[in-house]
Amino acid sequence: MSHEKFNFVLQQSRMITPRVLQMNLRREDGQAFSYIPGQFITLHLPFEAMELRRSYSVATIPGSGGDVEIAVTQVEGGRATGLLFAMQPGDRVSATGPFGRFVLREDPPSRYLLIATGTGVSPYRAMLPQLKTLIAEKRHTAVVMLGVRGPDECLFGGDFIEFAKENPGFEFVAGYSRRVSDPAQAHERRGYVQEHLMELNPDPKKDIVYLCGNPDMIDTAVERLKAIGFDNTNLRREKYVSSN
After folding, report:
1. What CATH superfamily is the domain 6-99?
2. Which residues, including other chains, have CB under 8 Å from residue 105's CB and lie 6 or more apart?
3. Which of 74, 133, 139, 214 qualifies as a cystine partner to 117, CB 3.0-4.6 A?
4. What is this structure's pTM?
5. Distance of alpha carbon 141 from alpha carbon 134, whole angstroms
6. Whole-angstrom distance, CA of residue 202 vs CA of residue 84
7. pLDDT per position as a tens digit, 99-109
């Protein structure tokens, strides 16, 4: 896969939670954008006398269309998010990619624990077709666990809930740090995902853990998992660092 610089054209954008904008992008040259689920793109944004670079995981479910979908969290006073939130359909943005090794691998039969905060769940959405195949072949099971503030911020939750209904062997759990539904739904928990992760009884002999999103969540989870025998062979992580 090449990493040349090219232009995306914004097809549409919409708020999918109170703080997250979904952007649908398409290559201006008409070429298909090839990527491995779990990878990210880098956008190059002109700002005054400089260029801002911001990276976003591809959230597109392969086979769902030709657009590249990304989820962008609004940052108060953020220079890059100010530019992206102001874009209109037809506007162009330069990009490079795809990049990254936060992808599913040729693993032995195991349970995938896919843990995320906020937009860190984007790569797991892109992995759904791969997970469907692995689960159908009886090689793997999987749990996606997303941590957000409350039900209104359950990013792509509908996709994961529907996938769980259609694919025995897959579970979706949402951890809400501030507010829960009343009454709470079966997939909802109150608290932080790093707490509920341990309720899944992670086993270093059977499980492979992916961690994506907030660095504090990842560091805390890694510390607890290493204390029970996990190591770099079954821990995979990608930290999202907020930039102004």
Report:
1. Translation factors (2.40.30.10)
2. none
3. 214
4. 0.94
5. 8
6. 39
7. 999 999 999 99
